[in-house]
Amino acid sequence: MTPVSNGVGELRGPLTVVAPGERGATRIADRVVSKIAAQAAREALGALPTASTRPHATVVVLPHSQLRSSGGTPIGAARINIHLDLDYPCDIGSRCADVRRHVASRVRALVGMEVPEVAVHVERLHLTPARGAAQGRTR
Predict the structure, then answer these.
(1) CB–CB of 60/44 below 8 Å?
(2) Is the preceding peptide bond at 89 cis, omega within 30 degrees of 0?
(3) Looking at the DSSP assignment, which residues form a beta bridge with residue 63?
(4) What is the model's pLDDT at position 36?
(5) pLDDT (tens digit, 9 = 90+) per residue, 36-90?
(6) What's the predicted TM-score (pTM) here?
(7) Which of 84, 83, 82, 94 is nearest to 126 (CA)?
């Protein structure tokens, strides 16, 4: 019967240090970035209109950009298109700006990609009746 080694006392070869630029790279799929962007848009909007569809995103992940991380490796970049519905009346410009800002910061924080462009497409406006207003046709 051969003895079983418990690993104590056995020496491995010396550990080699690989320079950051020579290490592998993590590739994050476009659809993962898209799901993160859509979730970030939902976070930015808060409560959705009752008859609305959930925000969805399409993402184009650009090849490694000229930007470099602190380790010297190139950073990926993503262009994001967000499609959403909004309640109306509201300040459409500020709501879109909030979504743009939040999506860019969340993708940057969670995925580590630069986001040079977030295009927000408002597909529908849902009329929300004013409190105390009579129901009926709106002009």
Answers:
(1) no
(2) yes
(3) none
(4) 93
(5) 999 999 899 887 666 667 777 777 777 655 555 555 445 688 889 999 888 888 8
(6) 0.68
(7) 84
